[in-house]
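Annex B, item 7. Sequence and C-alpha cells for protein A, then protein B.
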Amino acid sequence: MEEVMTMDLEEKEDGLEALKNKAQLIANDIIKEALETLRELQKKEAAAAAKYKVNNITWSTCKDFTVGKGLLQIEEYLNTWELHESWLHWTNYLCDEELEYSTRYHYRVRFSIPTCRKPIPRATANVYFIIEISKIKPPTFPVEVFFVVETNKLIHRPGESRFKEKWLKDVIESKIYMMKAIGF
C-alpha cells in the first residue's frame, strides 16, 4: 500500500513538474511574441515620427531678446511651416505685459489668401504669439514661446506640435459662413 502511495506521489510530482515545464514554455513563447510585437510597433512609430518631423528654430536667449528680434524670429519660425504658397501673412507687435516673474510680448500674425478675382480677402485668420522672458531664470536661457490659433483654446509650443494649414482654413471658412448668416 505504501508503494502505491509512493508511486502515486511520484507520478503526481512528475506530472506537476511536466506541467510547470509546459507552463514555462508557454510563458516564454508569449513573452517572446510580445517583445517582437513591441519592437515592430517601435519601428513603425520611429518611421512615423521621422515622416512627420516637427520643425523649430533656435530661439534667442532672454538677455539678447528685443521686440524686433522677436518679430524676426517669429518670421523665421513661420518659414518652417508647411503652407501653400498662396498664403500671405503679415506680423505685428501688439504689446508687452509685465507679470511678477516674467514679461510677455504679444504678436499677431494675420493670414489670408488673396486671389486675382478677390484681391481683398473676405476674411483673415490670426495666430497670436507670446514670447515670455523670465525674470527668475538665468538670462542665458532661451525665451519661452507659445502660440494660439484664433478661435481655438489650445496653446501650442514651437517644436512640440506640428502646424496644420487646415487650422487657418477652418477659421476663414467659419468667418465667411458667419458673414453669410448675418444680413448686412
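Protein B:
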Amino acid sequence: MTRRKVQLSFIANNSARKSTLKKRKLGLVKKMHEITTLCGVEGCVIINDDNDPQPTVWPSEAGARRTIERFRSLLIDDQNKRMVNQESFTKQRLEKIEEKLKKQRRENREKEVTQKMYQSMCDGPLVVASTLNANECEEVINMLSRHIMEMNIAMETLRGEASSSNSNSLP
C-alpha cells in the first residue's frame, strides 16, 4: 500500500495537529540519530512546542549546547559556507535547470542538423538546401566537415594498424 501525498498546509483540527506534531518530532529525532550514526557527523535537534513547556532536545541538552557552541566558534564565513536560504536554493536550482535546458537544446539542434544531413544524402542536396536558410546550410556543412575529418582519422588509424601488422609479419 502506497502512502498518499500529504498536503502541506496548516492543520486546522487541534487534536490532529498535536498528533501530527508528536509523530513528526519523533521522526525528526530518529532521522537525526540515523544521520549522525551513519555519516559520523555532529548534529542536534531542538524543537520548541507551545503545548510543551520543555523543548524537545536531542541528543541531550549538554550535547546540543556543545554542538551549537562549536558552530558559533567557527568564523562567520565558515558558518555561512553551506547555508542556504529559500532564495539562494531556488537560484541554484534555476541555474542547474537552465544549464540542463541549454544542453538539451544543443543536443536537439545537433539531431535536427544530422537529420537534415541524412535527408540531403537521400533526397539530394539541392532539394534539402532549398528548404534551409543560410545559417542552417552552414550548420549542415560544418557537420559534414566534422564527419569527413572523423572518417579520415579513422581511415588513417586503420592504415597505420594494417601497415604495422604487415611489417610485423615479414620474415
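Comment on protein B: The chain has a mean pLDDT of 86.
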